[in-house]
Amino acid sequence: MREEQIMRNSNKYEIADVKRIAEGQWDTVFQALCPELEHALAHPGHHIDCPIHGGKEDFRLDRGFKQRGTAICTCGNWDGFSLLKELKGWSLPEILEQVMGALGEQSVEPLAPTVSRPPPRKVEEKQDIRPTLRKRWEEALPLGRGEGRFMLASYLQFRGLPVKPMLNVLETEARLHPRMAYIEKGKVVSYYPALITIVRDAAGKPVTMHRTYLNRTENGVVEKAPVSKAKKLFPVVKNGDVHGGAIRLGTATAGVIGVAEGIETSLAIRAATGMPVWPVLSASLMRSFEPPEGVTEVVIWADRDLPDRKGRKAGQDAAEVLQARLLEKGIRASIKIPDAPSSTDVSVDWADVYTSSGLTGFPRKSKAA
Q1: Residue 154 buriedness (CB in 10 A; 0-12 / 13-18 / 19+)
Q2: Class at the top of the CATH hierarchy for domain 256-366
Q3: What pTM value is reported for the model?
C-alpha cells in the first residue's frame, strides 16, 4: 500500500517549486519534522552532538540555515533536502511532500522515519564555563620563567621549532598547566601537563581555551600525551561564539596576517617565514574566520588533506570558502598548500613541511619583510 501511494504521489510536487517555497522557511520545516534538531534550532551556528553519527559537538546548523536548511558536521554537509534524507531515510517524493506539509499543505499526512535514530538527549541549561576557565588559567604556569617555560621549551624542541622565538610568540596567550585532568566518557582517566591557549572571538574577546596534553618520557623528552585525543577545546562561554575567532599569536605585520588550522602548524610557518599566523583549530572554523580591523591581506596556509569518501578535501575546501568570503569583503586573500607528498595515502600540513624540508619547503614570496 505504501509503495503504491509513493508511486501515485511521485510527481505531485516538483523539486524546483518546493525549493522556491521552502527558501527562508527551513526553521519551520525542521521544527515540524525533526525533533532531534531542537537544540540545534535553538542555537544555530553552535556545535551540538551529531544526530546522525553521534559525534560529540560535531554538528551544527549553519547560521543562515533558514534559507536552504544547510548543516555541517565532520560526517558530512547537507542542504535541507539531503539532511531530511539522512535523518529520516525518506525518498525524494516523500521529502517533497513532507516539506510541503510542514509549510501548511493540508492534504499531506505525517510520515514516520524509515531509518532508526537514537532519541535526542535532553539538553540541560548551559552553565557558564567562565569560572572554570579562570581557575584553570590561574593554576597554570606562565611561560616567561620557571617550570612552565622549561617544559614547553622541551616540547618545542621535540617539534623541531626554534625555542626562544616561539616561546615569545606564545607568552601572552598561553600557559602550561602542570596537572590537567584527562576525561573520557565523562570520567577522569588520568592527569597530564597541558599547554592551554586562549581562543578569542571575532571581536577579540576570550570565549574559551584550547588544551594540548603533553607527556614527559623516561628520557626527558616532552611530546604529546599518549591518549586518544591529545587536543581538546573547553566549552565556549555562555553567549560566546568561537566562529570567526582564533588563537591570536602576534599581530598583523603591515596589514598582513596568516591563518592555519593547528597551533604547531602556525608556529612552524612563523618560524619559516616570520609571518604572524593565527591558529583557527579546525577546517570547519577556518571557513568562518574574521580578520580584525586593519588587516588588508590574509594568507591561508591550508592543510593538504586526503579526500573523504565523497571526494571532499577538508583543508583545501575550507581555505577556498574563506578566500571567497574575504575577497568579497575587499580583503586580499591567497592560499598556500604544501606540495603533494611522495606517498599518496597521507595528509600533509605545513608543520610536516617544516620538519622534513625546513625553510626550503616554503614559498619564498611568503617570507615577511
Answers
A1: middle
A2: alpha beta
A3: 0.68
